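Database export, one record per block. Field names are fixed; values are copied verbatim from the stored entry.
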Amino acid sequence: MNDLSLTILPEVAGDAQAIERLHERTFGPGRYVLSAYRIREHVDHVLELSFTARIGTLLVGSVRQLPICVGDTPALLLGPLTVEPPFRGRSVGRKLLERALKDAKAQGHRLVLLVGDEPYYSRVGFKPVPKGRVTMPGPVDYARLLILELVEGAFEGVSGPVGPDWSKTPT
């Protein structure tokens, strides 16, 4: 794949069905019992901080971010990040991540949380959350709970349950 052929664009409302089909193919029906999906049931992702990867008109990847709080501290929950299997290993996921994190920082966000593989996400700066410092609803493997400070020191003194940022939900 030629790097010039990949386009990273902000997600638009019309992308929703294609992204849902991608999630279905990639994660299957079991995705709905995961902790992150418990939170996604209550608050929508932020379109301007969520991105698609395309080759021509073909959607080959997606990343979403949604507003959460860790205790009383606002943050973003990154995910799901998914790439069509034939396009994995070609930097599509990394480019989606870099764009999502760059735009989140530019918009003044300070922290990004996710549940994922440390060897993959540590390449862009994510670190494990210290044991017992953060809790999530539903089943979660706390060894996979990772945090990224977009502003140095932003995670100092932050702890508590993760939940939707209710101030960002429609009334």
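Remark 1: DSSP finds four helices and nine strands in the chain.
Remark 2: The chain has a mean pLDDT of 88.
End of record.
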